[in-house]
Design brief:
disordered N terminus; 211 residues; globular; seven-stranded antiparallel beta sheet; single chain; alpha+beta
């Protein structure tokens, strides 16, 4: 009896493995798409919602995921599924940048915990900045609250630069919540003076636009 060549068997086995892998990959992609569809797409702020600047605001990028961290950023979001993260990043050509992060949590209780964690993290920005810039003068600022949905808080950090070409750097940040969704907005500049009232309007718009 003639036996089938081993090479032909190996080729067919490899083809079958590739087909199985492709099918598995397609199933994983479909599962990811279904998961994404189950997470409501939140509304994000636009350039017209940002504090006025001497130069025009532009969108750097936006979409699903975490995006770029601002100077006060760096909160560990690894416990939140990527499917539940959304972002928008903005800049002017020279004067300022802004960053928005939205986290859609499975439950409101989880959103409350995440909002509390984010507020604590951003409140520690001044201390972290002082460690990074030991020769500069760093001042923490509490700008109070914004009465919108489940509430928002606003803070900031002023850095008086010493022996550098920059005279100062200012950061503003706000954390707000609407139900099971948390939003963080950050603004930073070493040129433009911070307009806290306008930034509070940005934070209000960010919460109002979520859903």
């Amino acid at each position: 009896m003639r036996t089938r060549p081993r090479t032909r068997i190996a080729v067919r086995a490899a083809a079958a493995a590739l087909a199985l892998a492709a099918a598995s990959g397609q199933a994983a992609t479909q599962a990811h798409a279904q998961t994404r569809e189950e997470v409501p797409q939140p509304g994000l702020i636009s350039t017209t919602d940002l504090p006025p600047d001497s130069l025009s605001w532009q969108v750097s990028s936006s979409g699903d995921g975490w995006g770029v961290d601002g100077p006060c950023g760096g909160w560990d979001h690894s416990a939140v599924s990527d499917d539940r993260l959304f972002y928008a990043d903005f800049f002017t050509s020279e004067t300022a940048s802004a960053y928005e992060k939205v986290l859609v949590l499975p439950t409101e209780a989880e959103a409350v915990a995440v909002a509390d964690s984010l507020r604590g993290f951003y409140a520690g920005c001044a201390a972290r900045t002082a460690q990074q810039l030991p020769n500069d003068v760093v001042t923490a600022q509490d700008h109070g609250t914004v009465d919108v949905e489940e509430g928002a808080t606003v803070g900031g950090v002023h850095v008086k630069r010493i022996n550098t070409w920059e005279d100062h750097r200012d950061d503003l940040y706000g954390v707000g919540r609407d139900g099971n969704t948390v939003v963080v907005v950050e603004w930073e500049s070493n040129s433009t003076q911070p307009d806290v009232t306008a930034f509070k309007g940005t934070v209000r718009a960010a919460v109002d636009k979520l859903f």
